[in-house]
């Protein structure tokens, strides 16, 4: 295995862990953002 490949894998797993940690710390923020995005999409389809 190349060193760069290993480093890339480590970075990817770090990012996954960070995402997990973030969603654990801020579950409401994430769901609010998601519902806001869905609402925005609905508004766009109504206007369009």
What is the typical, i.e. mean, pLDDT?
A: 75
* Number of strand elements: 0
- Specify the structural class: mainly alpha
Helicity level, as a percent range?
over 70%
Beta strand %: under 5%
Helical stretch tally: 2
Low-confidence stretches: none
How far apart, in Å, are the first and last alpha carbons? 51 Å
Using the CA coordinates, give the radius of gyration: 17 Å
The helix/strand series, from N terminus to C terminus, equals HH
Characterise this structure:
The protein has two helices and no strands. The chain is mainly α. It has one domain. The longest helix has 23 residues, at 3-25. The N and C termini lie far apart (51 Å). The mean pLDDT is 75.
Summarize the structure.
By secondary structure, this protein is an all-alpha fold.
Note the topology:
Elements lengths: L2 H23 L1 H21 L1
Helix pairs in contact: 1-2
């Amino acid at each position: 295995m190349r060193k760069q490949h290993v480093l890339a894998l480590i970075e990817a797993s770090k990012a996954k862990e960070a995402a997990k940690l973030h969603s654990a710390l801020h579950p409401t923020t994430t769901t609010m953002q998601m519902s806001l995005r869905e609402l925005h999409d609905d508004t766009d389809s109504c206007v369009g």
